[in-house]
Every structure is written in C-alpha cells, then in structure tokens.
Design brief:
heterodimer; A: about 110 residues; mainly beta; 6-stranded mixed beta sheet; 12 strands; B: about 120 residues; 7-stranded mixed beta sheet; globular
Chain lengths: ~110, ~120
C-alpha cells in the first residue's frame, strides 16, 4: 500500500542552521504531497503542499519540491529559528482520498 | 472561522468505562477524519466520512470503537469499554472535499487517559 518514510529524529540544530528533513514515498498513481507541523499541545497544521511533479511548495521560509523521479519531498529551510521547534510530518494523499502520514520528525532549535 | 472544535480537550477515565469524543468540523467541509496519535504508533487514521457517510473504517482497531456522523456539523468517536491501551491523543480533521488537492484542517485533539 501507499506509504511515507521520513527521516528519524530527533533533530537538534542551532539557530540559523540549515535544515533538511528527508521524506520519500511509495504510491500508485499521482499523489499530492504535504508537510504538516505540530507545535506542542496542538493539532497538525498544514505547512506546505505540492500537487504534481516538480511543484515546489513553500511557506514561512520552508520549501519542498515534488520529485517524482526519486519519489521524494524533502523539507528544507535555510535558517531555522527557535520558534521552528516542533514535530514535522510528511504526508501523501492518493486518488482514493487516503491520507498517509510519516512517523514525524521532532526538531529542536537551540538559541 | 473557529476551526475544527473537539471536546473534551482532556479526558481521564477508568478501564471499562464508556468514552465519547466529540468533533465539530469546519462549516462547509464535507469530509471528516478521526486519527489517533501515540508515541509507539505515530498518527493513525481510524475512520473517515464523506457527506456524513463512513467511507473507510479499516483503521478502527476493534469493535470497541465506533464512530458516527449524524449530520454535517457533528461527529462522535465512542470507545466502549475503554482499556488502558486506548490512551492516546485523538484528532479530528475536516476537509472541504475529496479531491487530491484539499488539505485537512486538524482540531486541537483530545488527550485520553484510561487508568
């Protein structure tokens, strides 16, 4: 079945460091891809999305590019802030409206 | 827009008791999803509804779990009888439609503790 595999955490970075969280997927057809963020004590919030190959989703300085050839959707940010500390989930939504989430990657940014 | 509303935010109960979790989706959304999040298993889809009709309940762990959506603005997830292993955070999410491009909007979750 369809699935998402993302980089295991936790990830700890210093403020202003470069962030990459890897995400790869397995799916039939042409899924839409998402990154969600979960701050402590809250529900998941959509961070960015891409609906077709080579699309780049971006928001709040985060970016991810839908790479069909490598079935990847890696999340990047050039300079992280303490306020970016959260759990990040990669997800796909297939043609059957099934949503699959990765296990989540906990990011801690230290001042 | 108030977003997805869940109640209660926290629930502590004893093993064997019935637990009912409630969700009000965003007005106008016609898809609703129930998830369970634990440290061990991560985020799991339990069931989802489209236009108040259950579409896929394959994620519901056991017959002790049941979900209903009597109308477009309300859904419940019931556990009867509850067990300690049901302790988790339960999220409700809604989506405008069933197309590939519709994001899901999550509620704040209900943290359930079964003693």
């Amino acid at each position: 079945g369809d699935s998402v595999t993302q980089m295991e955490g936790p990830v700890t970075l210093s403020e202003e460091a470069f962030l990459t969280i890897n995400c790869t997927y397995t799916a039939t057809g042409y899924p839409s891809l998402f990154w969600y963020v979960q701050y402590p004590g809250e529900g998941l919030q959509l961070l960015l999305k891409a609906t077709k190959a080579d699309d780049k989703g971006s928001n709040k300085g985060f970016e991810a590019t839908y790479r069909k050839e490598t079935t990847s959707f890696h999340l990047e940010k050039g300079s992280v802030q303490v306020s970016d500390s959260a759990v990040y989930f990669c997800a796909l939504r297939n043609n059957n409206n099934d949503m699959r989430f990765g296990a989540g990657t906990r990011l801690t940014v230290k001042p | 827009d108030a977003g997805v509303i869940q109640s209660p935010r926290h629930e502590v109960t004893e093993m064997g008791q019935e637990v009912t979790l409630r969700c009000k989706p965003i007005s106008g959304h016609n898809s609703l999803f129930w998830y369970r999040q634990t440290m061990m298993r991560g985020l799991e889809l339990l069931i989802y509804f489209n236009n108040n009709v259950p579409i896929d309940d394959s994620g519901m762990p056991e017959d002790r779990f049941s979900a209903k959506m009597p109308n477009a603005s309300f859904s419940t997830l019931k556990i009867q009888p509850s067990e300690p292993r049901d302790s988790a955070v339960y999220f409700c999410a809604s989506s405008p439609g069933t197309g590939d491009y519709n994001e899901q909007f999550f509620g704040p979750g209900t943290r359930l503790t079964v003693l």
